[in-house]
Amino acid sequence: MIGLVVGLIITLAITSSVSTIGKQFRITGAGHSAAEGAQVAVALIDRDLRGAGAALFNGSFASLCPGYNMYDKGVVTADNSNLYSLHYPVRIESGASTAVSDMVEIMVGAPDFYSGEILPIVKEMPSSSDIMKISDTNLASEDQIHVGDTVLVVQAPPNETKAPCTRFKVTKVSGQTQSDQCTNFKAGCNVHFGSTSGDVVNDFNPTNPNTTYTKPVSYSAGSLVFKMPPGWVKPEFEYVQYAVACGALLRYDPKKVDPVVLRTTCPASYKNYAMAADIVMLKAQYGISTDGSDQIATWENAPTAAQYTAFSTAQRDDYHKKLQRVKAVRLAMVARSREPDTGKVTAQAPGVFDDTLTLDLSGVAVPAGKTWQNYRYRTHETVVPLRNPLWNR
């Protein structure tokens, strides 16, 4: 009897020890897993950030279109506008507070710019004319240009004067035509973008482009007319967004998924976009240089979506000027251990960016009976230089 009692006590002691050791092993392992998750998350964004803007700066796009002239229903939407202000390589949308993650949007690809037909202008455009003379001996029997098409006109290379590209809507086709379509490119056709009686509605064409825009809309022989796909408004570069939601770092194409639905309702499909698990917070700041310099002068938080909407015209202009001077992005990623401890093992929320920002983790989801302080956290920070804007200053 005594032997049985002693054996039972020993068995209970061993079982308790194994259980304690096992729990501690799980906690330790979960801590390492959180650290690795934060490292992976930072590495993923780092990869895209280092290539941000390559499609804008390193390809032929910037040399073809150093700026835009665009008009829409009586409003000049772009007047020789700088490409950088229209197509930012990186944009940060700030969370509403230190308890809400930021969202980082990164340019990762070029627009479908060459999907339409490319036609040459064969005669200098008079500055007062709304006619482009186009021709291509290799397309003698092709039907390429239609009334109602949207086109982008590009100055003949080399574009030493940095003439902007101009968007027009084709309102009339004359010359060698058939049913308002240019069919004889060998002889050439006149493509109109004016407000001639009987033409289509010309939402994209000001009455007098040469007084509407800062730079004259006159293109030399050899300039190119790009016929754009239906519904095209302006060159749309490919972007991805990084956001923290559903207990993970998500990477998704905002054109192919509803970001708000994805981040707020966490449908089962969120796993298709999860790049790193157990991520609870993402914070980012712009590294902004002084004019004409590559040296970062200040680190600044981005505005929230509501703040940006409330900006005055002057405030928006100032914000876009700052975006043109962004030389780097500073990131902080916080991962949480999956295994809660029995007590409060985290006394205070971590500080990031040289402790200038103390995060509020009280809102992260936890099981009933637990608080955010029952978990261990790992924070990883990095500064990523934006190579393409640096090289193309």
Structure description:
- This is Type IV pilus assembly protein PilW.
- InterPro entries: PilW.
- The protein is α+β, with helices and mostly antiparallel strands and 393 residues long.
- The chain has two domains: 33-53 and 90-107 and 240-391, no CATH class; 118-227, no CATH class.
- It has helices at 2-50, 54-57, 61-64, 83-86, 209-212, 259-265, 305-310, 313-323, 387-391, and strands at residues 67-72, 75-82, 90-93, 103-109, 118-120, 131-134, 150-154, 165-169, 172-175, 189-192, 224-227, 238-245, 248-252, 274-277, 279-289, 296-300, 326-336, 351-352, 357-358, 377-385.
- It has a six-stranded mixed β-sheet.
- The longest helix has 49 residues, at 2-50.
- It is elongated, with a radius of gyration of 29 Å.
- 34% of the residues are buried.
- Mean pLDDT is 80; it is low at 137-142.
How many helices in DSSP terms? 9
- Number of separate strands: 20
The shape is elongated
Please state roughly what percent of the residues sit in beta strands, choosing from under 5%, 5-15%, 15-25%, 25-35%, 35-45% or over 45%.
Answer: 25-35%
Count of the separate structural domains: 2
Helix content: 10-25%
Low-confidence stretches: 137-142
Helix-strand makeup class: alpha+beta
Residue-averaged pLDDT: 80
